[in-house]
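Per your request, structure below.
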C-alpha cells in the first residue's frame, strides 16, 4: 500500500480525506465525496460525455485514491438477508450480513442498522 496523505478536492477545494496520491493529480489533491457523486451522476445520465474510464484516469481508484461510493443491495432469501456489495465482500469475505441482522428483522430495521454503521451508505432493498 502506498503512502496515504491528506487530500484537498481538486474540483471544489473541500477536504477530500486521507488517501493515496493518484499519479495523474497534483500532490495533495484528490476527489471529495460530493464531487465524486456529482461525477458519477453525470456518468449515469450520460452528461458531458463522462465515462468511468475517464474518471479512473483523472481521479484513480475508488477506495484507494478517493472514498468509494457505498451501495448495498439487500436481498431476502430463505436463510435471511443477503447482501451484494463489493466492499462488503472484500472486507468480510462473505456476502452474508452478520448474524446481528436476524432473518426475522424487517427491511427497515436492517437498513437503519447498516446505515448507523456505515454513514452515507446507499442501500437498495429487493
Amino acid at each position: 500500500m502506498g503512502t496515504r496523505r491528506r487530500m484537498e478536492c481538486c474540483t471544489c477545494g473541500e477536504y477530500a480525506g486521507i488517501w493515496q496520491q493518484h499519479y495523474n493529480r497534483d500532490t495533495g489533491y484528490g476527489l471529495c465525496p460530493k464531487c465524486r457523486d456529482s461525477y458519477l451522476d453525470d456518468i449515469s445520465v450520460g452528461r458531458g460525455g463522462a465515462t468511468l474510464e475517464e474518471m479512473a484516469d483523472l481521479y484513480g481508484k475508488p477506495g484507494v485514491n478517493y472514498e468509494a461510493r457505498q451501495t448495498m443491495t439487500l436481498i431476502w432469501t430463505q436463510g435471511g438477508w443477503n447482501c451484494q456489495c463489493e466492499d462488503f465482500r472484500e472486507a468480510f469475505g462473505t456476502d452474508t450480513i452478520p448474524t446481528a441482522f436476524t432473518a426475522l428483522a424487517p427491511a427497515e430495521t436492517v437498513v437503519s442498522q447498516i446505515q448507523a454503521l456505515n454513514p452515507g451508505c446507499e442501500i437498495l432493498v429487493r
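Strands lie at 4-9, 15-20, 29-30, 71-77, 80-84, 122-125.

Regards,
D.
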